[in-house]
Structures are given as structure tokens and as C-alpha cells.
Specification:
The protein contains three helices and no strands. By secondary structure, it is mainly alpha-helical. Helix content is 70%, strand content 0%.
Length: 113
């Protein structure tokens, strides 16, 4: 299969080069080529969609929904852990982010000169 694709590319690319150089302007050739590729892709999509519809879809029931909720909770917990770790790293006095923090944080902290 891959060998056939390489052979097609080896034939088509020089042909496109000649076509764009001598027959049609590059912009118009690009538009025509894009239309042909989109047309082919549309046919492939509909064929594969028809094949996919032959298989049964999973039933949406309470078990599926509870599993989705569990995964969503795990993702939110992971995101919260990552966020908290980043906040703690920024607050650490020796970190690279410590220079962005004020030296003394508090309502009485005045300018130090």
C-alpha cells in the first residue's frame, strides 16, 4: 500500500510542477487541486461513514453516564493538583518565580529605601 502511494507521488509531483509552471497559474492550480482533494475526501468520508453505521452504537444509560462523571471528576482533580503545585512552586522563596513576589507581603509593608 505504501509503495503504491510513493509511486503515485513520484509521478504526480513532477506532473504538478510542469502543470503549475507552464499550463495554469499557481493560484488557480492550487484552487483546482484543492477542490479535487476535497471532492475525493468527501467520497471517502461518506463511504467510511456508511461502513461505521453498520456497527451498533453503545447505549446511553446510567452506567455510561456515571463512568463519564467519574472520568470528569478525575480530570478536574488532576487539573487542581497541577494548579496547586504550580502555586506552591511560585511561593517557594528560592524559586525562579520568587523575584515576582514582594519581599514583605502584608498591610503594614511600606516602601523600603
Amino acid at each position: 500500500m505504501e509503495l503504491g502511494q510513493l509511486v503515485v507521488l513520484a509521478v504526480v509531483l513532477p506532473a504538478l510542477n510542469v502543470l503549475f509552471r507552464f499550463v495554469v497559474a499557481e493560484r488557480m492550480g492550487t484552487i483546482i487541486l484543492s477542490a479535487l482533494v476535497a471532492h475525493t475526501a468527501w467520497h471517502w468520508l461518506t463511504e467510511r461513514g456508511a461502513q461505521l453505521l453498520q456497527f451498533p452504537w453503545p447505549a446511553v444509560d446510567a452506567a455510561l453516564l456515571s463512568g463519564l462523571v467519574r472520568w470528569a471528576m478525575a480530570i478536574v482533580a488532576l487539573a487542581a493538583t497541577i494548579w496547586l503545585a504550580r502555586v506552591l512552586v511560585r511561593m517557594k522563596p528560592g524559586s525562579a518565580y520568587a523575584k515576582d513576589l514582594p519581599a514583605e507581603a502584608g498591610p503594614d509593608a511600606g516602601p523600603t529605601a
